[in-house]
């Protein structure tokens, strides 16, 4: 996803002289082509995320379209107040890019995981929040953000779901994508973990349970229509995210459905529950540990529907 | 303003009003009829709690009616206690300390990219030099040789609830800025002629950002407010207000 983002930015920058990419001393090697081609539109600002965010606001107030770039919680939580006061309050044209969404950086440890970022960023007025599931969504979100004016957050996962794009499909910011049709249960996922939802849907299909799979590449603004439709048309909703369920996608879905007065038969929020991702292991291993892999998703659905636990794929 | 509205920070305002008066009295190239003019000098009040002082300077300079100052702190006003960019002439809203120098550095870097001749002036408090982000920005500005950037530090030596020397000593303050790569000068922050002389000579050194450490007196101009911690937050009311006004009006 990271490479898809950089590739798209590199492709578009020649038409966008106002773009400036700020890195918090991260992106070794992956930013090389961009830096070589557009040295005046790149700055390594050092390991100083607060300053990076304030600088970004200052540059944006002078007409630049600024991207800040770092890992995990560094470009968001470390400098949340600069994002709130300097960027959002001024409506500054700054896009914050996090590489390593969720538990992407697995064994590196919890400090490098981004597991509360969606909740915090989506609470900020004027902020749009993007969390693509696959390489196409990542590239398209990047393309959208280059032209979009205003504060936005792009969370890039190391894992990517298998390609889900349909021929001729257009990326629409703020609209949920239906990746698979089904009427028994709806999986609503954001980020690369959508791949687990698809696998879980495969497992359940073998049991005669047909799951709709929705990809929420835009967490804010959140697409009400797709959610209320899923709540009324399918037998229940399972939200899946590599993030805290509190305030994350699951929380956001609950807010939307309650306010709309459309109640699913059940809502299960799958994600981290009041815990740090402190176990050591790969992203895939951690999904298993924290019951977020395909098998866990399938088990959860079976338990809800009162069916036998399906065999693992 | 602070009497009617009940605004705090009068001491912190009085310590920098001379600096603001000199800046808006001719140093800054700004035009009240074109507050967003691209060729204007930029000003960032990083010590946003001195908003009342900046509002007064802007009103005197004609950016908005002086009468509007009386709405400071009032319900529905645009004049929040900490400075707000809703007002014409204000580029940046601040209030949380340690933000302004980064924003000003971004503005100065943008000016450098387009070789624009305008300057970016940022007024900081001494207390906000406790904030690490201030020094992140100081490193950045020096590394990139942002010679259009001027940081003025209102060095009144009293912060929120105690003297600077008792909280986190900043001395040797001039040496710190110099060590970070800034061209530094010191000035009596209440001496208009000296302030003007210093500010017309920026950049103090070619290829470097300039830091002007302004030695000031918190609560300047009112004997019982001067150099007291109390008047960082205390609101002038009743007899204290009358006495303060009498003292100020007796001054030339």
Question: Could you walk me through the main structural features you see in this protein, from its secondary elements to its overall organization?
Answer:
The complex is a heterodimer of chains A (313) and B (252). Chain A is of the alpha/beta class. Chain A folds into 2 domains: 2-156, Thiamin diphosphate (ThDP)-binding fold, Pyr/PP domains (Rossmann fold); 177-305, Rossmann fold (3-Layer(aba) Sandwich), CATH 3.40.50. Helices cover 36% and strands 19% of the residues of chain A. Chain A contains 11 helices and 12 strands. A 7-stranded mixed sheet of chain A has the order 2-1-3-4-6-5-10, sandwiched between helices. In chain A, strands 7-9-8-11-12 form a 5-stranded mixed sheet, with helices on both faces. In chain A, helix 1 (2-12) packs parallel to helix 6 (135-147) and helix 3 packs parallel to helix 4. The relative contact order of chain A is 0.12. The model of chain A has no long low-confidence stretch (mean pLDDT 96). In chain B, helix 3 (17-27) runs parallel beside helix 4. Chain B has 10 helices and 5 strands; from the N terminus they run αααβααβαβααβαβα. The model of chain B has no long low-confidence stretch (mean pLDDT 95). The two termini of chain B are 21 Å apart. Chain B is globular. The longest helix of chain B has 14 residues, at 100-113. Chain B is α/β, with parallel strands linked by helices. Chain B has helices spanning 2-5, 10-14, 17-27, 51-60, 100-113, 132-143, 164-167, 173-179, 192-199, 238-250; strands spanning 42-45, 120-125, 149-155, 183-188, 210-215. In chain B, strands 1-2-3-5-4 form a 5-stranded parallel sheet, with helices on both faces.
């Amino acid at each position: 996803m990271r490479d898809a983002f950089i590739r798209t930015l590199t492709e578009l920058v020649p038409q966008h002289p106002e773009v400036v990419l700020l890195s918090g001393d991260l992106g070794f090697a992956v930013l090389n082509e961009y830096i070589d081609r557009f040295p005046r539109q790149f700055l390594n600002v050092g390991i100083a995320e607060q300053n990076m965010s304030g600088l970004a606001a200052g540059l944006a107030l002078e007409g630049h379209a600024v991207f800040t770039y770092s890992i995990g919680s560094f470009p968001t939580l470390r400098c949340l107040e600069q994002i709130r006061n300097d960027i959002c309050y001024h409506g500054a044209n700054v896009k914050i890019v996090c590489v390593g969404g969720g538990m992407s950086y697995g064994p590196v440890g919890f400090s490098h995981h981004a597991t509360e970022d969606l909740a915090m960023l989506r609470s900020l007025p004027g902020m749009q929040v993007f969390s693509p599931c696959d390489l196409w969504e990542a590239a398209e979100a990047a393309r959208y953000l280059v032209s979009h004016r205003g504060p936005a957050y792009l969370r890039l996962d190391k894992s990517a779901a298998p390609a889900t794009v349909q021929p001729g499909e257009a990326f629409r910011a703020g609209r949920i994508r239906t990746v698979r049709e089904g009427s028994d249960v709806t999986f609503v996922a954001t980020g690369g973990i959508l791949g687990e939802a698809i696998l879980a849907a495969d497992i359940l299909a073998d049991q005669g349970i047909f799951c709709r799979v929705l990809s929420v590449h835009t967490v804010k603004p959140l697409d009400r229509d797709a959610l209320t439709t899923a709540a009324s048309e399918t037998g229940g909703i399972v939200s899946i995210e590599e993030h805290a369920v509190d305030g994350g996608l699951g929380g956001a879905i609950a807010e939307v459905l309650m306010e709309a007065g459309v109640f699913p038969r059940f809502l299960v929020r799958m994600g981290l529950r009041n815990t740090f991702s402190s176990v050591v292991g790969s992203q895939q291993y951690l999904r298993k540990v924290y019951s977020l892999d395909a098998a866990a998703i399938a088990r959860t659905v079976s338990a809800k529907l009162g069916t036998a636990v399906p065999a693992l794929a | 303003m602070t009497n009617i509205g009940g605004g705090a920070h009068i001491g912190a305002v009085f310590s920098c009003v001379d600096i603001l008066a000199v800046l808006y009295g001719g140093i800054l190239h700004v035009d009240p009829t074109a507050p967003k003019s691209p060729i204007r000098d930029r000003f960032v009040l990083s010590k946003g709690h001195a908003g009342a002082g900046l509002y007064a300077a802007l009103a005197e300079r004609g950016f908005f009616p002086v009468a509007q100052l009386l709405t400071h702190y009032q319900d529905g006003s645009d004049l929040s206690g900490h400075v707000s960019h809703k007002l014409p002439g204000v580029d940046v809203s601040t209030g949380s300390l340690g933000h302004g120098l980064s924003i000003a550095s971004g503005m100065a870097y943008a000016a450098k990219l387009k070789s624009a001749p305008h300057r970016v002036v940022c007024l900081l408090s001494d207390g906000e030099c406790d904030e690490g982000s201030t020094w992140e920005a100081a490193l950045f500005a020096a590394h990139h040789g942002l010679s259009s950037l001027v940081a003025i530090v209102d060095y009144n030596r009293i912060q929120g609830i105690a003297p600077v020397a008792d909280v986190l000593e900043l001395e040797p303050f001039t040496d710190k800025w110099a060590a970070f790569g800034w061209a530094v000068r010191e000035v009596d922050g209440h001496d208009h002629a000296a302030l003007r002389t210093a500010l017309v000579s920026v950049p103090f050194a070619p290829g470097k950002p300039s830091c002007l450490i302004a030695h000031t007196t918190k609560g300047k101009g009112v004997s019982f407010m001067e150099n007291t911690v109390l008047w960082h937050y205390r609101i002038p009311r009743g007899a204290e207000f009358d006495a303060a006004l009498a003292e100020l009006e007796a001054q030339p």
